[in-house]
Protein backbone atom coordinates (compact mmCIF):
# COMPACT_ATOMS: atom_id res chain seq x y z
CA UNK A 1 0.00 0.00 0.00
CA UNK A 2 1.18 3.55 -0.72
CA UNK A 3 2.52 5.35 2.36
CA UNK A 4 0.15 7.79 4.10
CA UNK A 5 2.76 10.53 3.88
CA UNK A 6 5.11 10.87 0.94
CA UNK A 7 8.85 10.57 1.33
CA UNK A 8 9.55 14.10 0.19
CA UNK A 9 7.78 17.12 -1.26
CA UNK A 10 9.31 20.48 -2.17
CA UNK A 11 7.26 23.61 -1.46
CA UNK A 12 7.84 26.71 -3.59
CA UNK A 13 6.50 30.08 -2.47
CA UNK A 14 6.70 32.94 -5.00
CA UNK A 15 6.65 36.22 -3.08
CA UNK A 16 6.70 39.92 -3.81
CA UNK A 17 6.61 42.42 -0.94
CA UNK A 18 5.07 39.97 1.54
CA UNK A 19 6.99 41.02 4.68
CA UNK A 20 3.79 41.12 6.74
CA UNK A 21 2.82 37.55 5.90
CA UNK A 22 5.76 35.51 4.69
CA UNK A 23 7.02 34.27 8.08
CA UNK A 24 3.63 32.86 9.06
CA UNK A 25 3.23 31.26 5.63
CA UNK A 26 6.69 29.64 5.73
CA UNK A 27 6.15 28.35 9.27
CA UNK A 28 2.82 26.79 8.28
CA UNK A 29 4.23 25.17 5.12
CA UNK A 30 7.23 23.73 7.00
CA UNK A 31 4.76 21.86 9.20
CA UNK A 32 3.05 20.03 6.31
CA UNK A 33 3.76 16.28 6.43
CA UNK A 34 6.27 15.28 3.77
CA UNK A 35 7.53 18.78 3.02
CA UNK A 36 11.29 18.64 3.51
CA UNK A 37 12.34 21.64 1.40
CA UNK A 38 10.73 25.09 1.43
CA UNK A 39 11.95 27.55 -1.18
CA UNK A 40 10.83 31.17 -1.19
CA UNK A 41 11.49 32.98 -4.45
CA UNK A 42 11.70 36.66 -3.65
CA UNK A 43 10.80 38.39 -6.89
CA UNK A 44 12.51 41.75 -6.45
CA UNK A 45 10.76 42.76 -3.24
CA UNK A 46 11.53 46.18 -1.82
CA UNK A 47 10.75 45.08 1.75
CA UNK A 48 12.25 42.50 4.12
CA UNK A 49 10.49 39.47 2.56
CA UNK A 50 13.76 37.59 1.90
CA UNK A 51 15.25 38.09 5.39
CA UNK A 52 12.00 37.18 7.14
CA UNK A 53 11.56 34.07 4.98
CA UNK A 54 15.10 32.93 5.81
CA UNK A 55 14.59 33.55 9.53
CA UNK A 56 11.43 31.45 9.37
CA UNK A 57 13.44 28.54 7.96
CA UNK A 58 13.01 28.77 4.19
CA UNK A 59 15.74 28.62 1.58
CA UNK A 60 15.57 31.88 -0.32
CA UNK A 61 16.37 32.64 -3.94
CA UNK A 62 16.17 36.23 -5.09
CA UNK A 63 15.45 37.91 -8.36
CA UNK A 64 17.30 41.23 -8.37
CA UNK A 65 14.44 42.69 -10.38
CA UNK A 66 10.74 41.82 -10.52
CA UNK A 67 10.13 39.19 -13.23
CA UNK A 68 6.62 37.98 -12.48
CA UNK A 69 5.05 34.97 -10.88
CA UNK A 70 5.77 32.43 -13.62
CA UNK A 71 9.47 33.33 -13.69
CA UNK A 72 9.58 32.96 -9.90
CA UNK A 73 7.97 29.52 -10.11
CA UNK A 74 10.48 28.45 -12.76
CA UNK A 75 13.36 29.70 -10.62
CA UNK A 76 12.00 27.78 -7.63
CA UNK A 77 11.63 24.54 -9.59
CA UNK A 78 15.16 24.95 -10.95
CA UNK A 79 16.50 25.43 -7.44
CA UNK A 80 14.79 22.24 -6.26
CA UNK A 81 16.18 20.29 -9.24
CA UNK A 82 19.72 21.45 -8.44
CA UNK A 83 19.28 20.38 -4.80
CA UNK A 84 18.14 16.98 -6.01
CA UNK A 85 21.14 16.69 -8.30
CA UNK A 86 23.35 17.35 -5.28
CA UNK A 87 21.41 14.77 -3.27
CA UNK A 88 21.98 12.28 -6.09
CA UNK A 89 18.31 11.70 -6.89
CA UNK A 90 18.95 10.01 -10.20
CA UNK A 91 16.50 8.12 -12.38
CA UNK A 92 14.85 10.90 -14.34
CA UNK A 93 11.87 13.03 -13.44
CA UNK A 94 10.03 10.15 -11.73
CA UNK A 95 12.68 10.14 -8.97
CA UNK A 96 12.13 13.83 -8.27
CA UNK A 97 9.99 15.41 -5.59
CA UNK A 98 6.44 16.55 -6.34
CA UNK A 99 6.32 20.35 -6.28
CA UNK A 100 3.87 22.16 -4.03
CA UNK A 101 3.27 25.77 -5.09
CA UNK A 102 1.90 27.99 -2.34
CA UNK A 103 1.05 31.70 -2.47
CA UNK A 104 2.87 33.80 0.12
CA UNK A 105 -0.19 35.57 1.50
CA UNK A 106 -1.97 32.60 3.14
CA UNK A 107 -0.29 32.89 6.57
CA UNK A 108 -1.35 30.16 9.02
CA UNK A 109 -4.01 28.80 6.68
CA UNK A 110 -1.19 27.62 4.39
CA UNK A 111 -0.95 24.55 6.66
CA UNK A 112 -4.14 23.34 4.99
CA UNK A 113 -2.57 22.98 1.53
CA UNK A 114 -1.26 19.66 2.82
CA UNK A 115 -4.41 17.99 1.45
CA UNK A 116 -3.08 18.62 -2.06
CA UNK A 117 -0.15 16.28 -1.55
CA UNK A 118 -1.45 12.70 -1.04
CA UNK A 119 -3.33 12.33 -4.37
CA UNK A 120 -0.15 13.30 -6.24
CA UNK A 121 2.38 11.56 -4.02
CA UNK A 122 0.38 8.33 -4.21
CA UNK A 123 0.17 8.55 -7.98
CA UNK A 124 -3.62 8.90 -8.23
CA UNK A 125 -3.45 12.20 -10.16
CA UNK A 126 -0.69 14.31 -11.72
CA UNK A 127 -1.80 17.69 -10.39
CA UNK A 128 -4.10 18.86 -7.61
CA UNK A 129 -5.43 22.43 -7.38
CA UNK A 130 -6.87 23.99 -4.21
CA UNK A 131 -10.33 25.53 -4.30
CA UNK A 132 -10.87 28.18 -1.64
CA UNK A 133 -13.97 28.80 0.52
CA UNK A 134 -15.66 32.23 0.38
CA UNK A 135 -13.13 34.73 1.76
CA UNK A 136 -13.60 36.87 4.87
CA UNK A 137 -13.46 40.05 2.79
CA UNK A 138 -15.07 40.17 -0.61
CA UNK A 139 -13.01 41.17 -3.63
CA UNK A 140 -13.52 44.16 -5.85
CA UNK A 141 -13.46 42.13 -9.04
CA UNK A 142 -16.35 41.23 -11.25
CA UNK A 143 -15.24 37.78 -12.21
CA UNK A 144 -14.16 38.75 -15.75
CA UNK A 145 -10.79 37.10 -15.47
CA UNK A 146 -12.20 33.99 -13.81
CA UNK A 147 -14.79 33.56 -16.56
CA UNK A 148 -12.23 34.12 -19.33
CA UNK A 149 -9.93 31.54 -17.74
CA UNK A 150 -12.67 28.97 -17.11
CA UNK A 151 -14.10 29.17 -20.62
CA UNK A 152 -10.65 29.10 -22.22
CA UNK A 153 -9.63 25.99 -20.29
CA UNK A 154 -12.93 24.27 -21.08
CA UNK A 155 -12.73 25.05 -24.82
CA UNK A 156 -9.19 23.68 -25.03
CA UNK A 157 -9.53 20.63 -22.78
CA UNK A 158 -13.14 19.97 -21.77
CA UNK A 159 -12.17 20.42 -18.10
CA UNK A 160 -14.47 22.76 -16.15
CA UNK A 161 -12.40 24.45 -13.45
CA UNK A 162 -14.27 25.78 -10.42
CA UNK A 163 -11.39 28.15 -9.58
CA UNK A 164 -9.17 28.36 -12.66
CA UNK A 165 -6.81 30.98 -11.19
CA UNK A 166 -6.01 29.22 -7.93
CA UNK A 167 -2.25 29.29 -7.33
CA UNK A 168 -2.03 26.48 -4.78
CA UNK A 169 -1.07 23.35 -6.68
CA UNK A 170 0.82 20.13 -6.17
CA UNK A 171 2.22 18.41 -9.26
CA UNK A 172 4.74 15.83 -10.26
CA UNK A 173 8.00 16.88 -11.89
CA UNK A 174 6.74 15.21 -15.11
CA UNK A 175 3.64 17.41 -15.06
CA UNK A 176 5.73 20.51 -14.42
CA UNK A 177 8.00 19.62 -17.33
CA UNK A 178 4.97 19.07 -19.58
CA UNK A 179 3.90 22.66 -18.89
CA UNK A 180 7.36 24.18 -19.35
CA UNK A 181 8.21 26.79 -20.44
CA UNK A 182 5.42 28.15 -18.22
CA UNK A 183 2.95 30.71 -19.51
CA UNK A 184 4.22 34.11 -18.46
CA UNK A 185 3.16 36.22 -15.51
CA UNK A 186 -0.37 35.72 -14.23
CA UNK A 187 -1.18 33.35 -17.11
CA UNK A 188 0.80 30.65 -15.36
CA UNK A 189 -2.09 28.87 -13.64
CA UNK A 190 -4.23 28.64 -16.77
CA UNK A 191 -1.21 27.51 -18.78
CA UNK A 192 -0.38 24.79 -16.26
CA UNK A 193 -3.91 23.41 -16.24
CA UNK A 194 -4.22 23.36 -20.03
CA UNK A 195 -0.75 21.94 -20.68
CA UNK A 196 -0.97 19.18 -18.08
CA UNK A 197 -4.40 18.11 -19.36
CA UNK A 198 -3.31 18.22 -23.02
CA UNK A 199 -0.35 16.01 -22.09
CA UNK A 200 -2.95 13.38 -21.15
CA UNK A 201 -2.44 13.78 -17.42
CA UNK A 202 -5.03 13.90 -14.63
CA UNK A 203 -5.98 17.10 -12.79
CA UNK A 204 -8.23 17.35 -9.73
CA UNK A 205 -9.54 20.30 -7.73
CA UNK A 206 -9.49 19.76 -3.96
CA UNK A 207 -11.37 21.97 -1.46
CA UNK A 208 -8.95 23.57 0.94
CA UNK A 209 -9.57 25.83 3.95
CA UNK A 210 -7.41 28.77 2.83
CA UNK A 211 -7.60 32.51 3.48
CA UNK A 212 -5.59 35.03 1.52
CA UNK A 213 -5.42 38.77 0.99
CA UNK A 214 -8.20 39.57 -1.46
CA UNK A 215 -7.45 42.21 -4.10
CA UNK A 216 -9.81 45.11 -3.52
CA UNK A 217 -11.58 47.52 -5.84
CA UNK A 218 -8.99 50.30 -5.36
CA UNK A 219 -6.64 51.19 -8.20
CA UNK A 220 -4.11 48.57 -7.12
CA UNK A 221 -6.73 45.85 -7.34
CA UNK A 222 -7.88 47.09 -10.74
CA UNK A 223 -4.32 47.17 -12.08
CA UNK A 224 -3.73 43.64 -10.73
CA UNK A 225 -6.84 42.36 -12.50
CA UNK A 226 -5.98 44.14 -15.74
CA UNK A 227 -2.56 42.45 -15.78
CA UNK A 228 -4.15 39.12 -14.90
CA UNK A 229 -6.59 39.51 -17.80
CA UNK A 230 -3.80 40.35 -20.24
CA UNK A 231 -1.63 37.40 -19.16
CA UNK A 232 -4.50 34.87 -19.09
CA UNK A 233 -5.65 35.98 -22.54
CA UNK A 234 -2.12 35.62 -23.90
CA UNK A 235 -1.67 32.16 -22.38
CA UNK A 236 -4.93 31.01 -23.99
CA UNK A 237 -4.14 32.57 -27.37
CA UNK A 238 -0.76 30.84 -27.49
CA UNK A 239 -2.29 27.49 -26.62
CA UNK A 240 -5.06 27.83 -29.23
CA UNK A 241 -2.42 28.65 -31.84
CA UNK A 242 -0.36 25.64 -30.80
CA UNK A 243 -3.40 23.39 -31.12
CA UNK A 244 -4.05 24.67 -34.64
CA UNK A 245 -0.47 23.85 -35.61
CA UNK A 246 -0.70 20.26 -34.43
N1 LIG B 1 6.94 36.22 -8.27
C1 LIG B 1 6.02 37.12 -8.08
N2 LIG B 1 5.07 36.83 -7.23
C2 LIG B 1 4.17 37.78 -7.01
C3 LIG B 1 4.16 39.04 -7.65
N3 LIG B 1 3.12 39.74 -7.21
C4 LIG B 1 2.50 38.93 -6.32
N4 LIG B 1 3.16 37.76 -6.19
C5 LIG B 1 2.86 36.61 -5.35
O1 LIG B 1 1.88 35.83 -6.02
C6 LIG B 1 0.94 35.33 -5.07
C7 LIG B 1 -0.43 35.76 -5.46
O2 LIG B 1 -0.48 37.17 -5.47
P1 LIG B 1 -1.71 37.95 -4.92
O3 LIG B 1 -1.36 39.39 -4.91
O4 LIG B 1 -2.11 37.34 -3.63
O5 LIG B 1 -2.78 37.68 -6.07
P2 LIG B 1 -4.27 37.12 -5.99
O6 LIG B 1 -4.27 36.02 -5.01
O7 LIG B 1 -4.57 36.70 -7.40
O8 LIG B 1 -5.12 38.28 -5.57
C8 LIG B 1 1.43 35.83 -3.70
O9 LIG B 1 2.24 34.81 -3.18
C9 LIG B 1 2.28 37.03 -4.04
O10 LIG B 1 3.31 37.27 -3.10
C10 LIG B 1 5.21 39.29 -8.57
O11 LIG B 1 5.32 40.35 -9.19
N5 LIG B 1 6.10 38.29 -8.74
MG1 LIG C 1 -3.68 36.17 -2.91
TrEMBL record:
Domain Glycosyltransferase 2-like: 11-133
Enzyme class: transferase
Cofactor: Mg(2+); Mn(2+)
Keywords: Glycosyltransferase, Magnesium, Transferase
GO MF annotation list: glycosyltransferase activity
Family: Belongs to the glycosyltransferase 2 family.
Protein name: Glucosyl-3-phosphoglycerate synthase
Organism: Knoellia koreensis
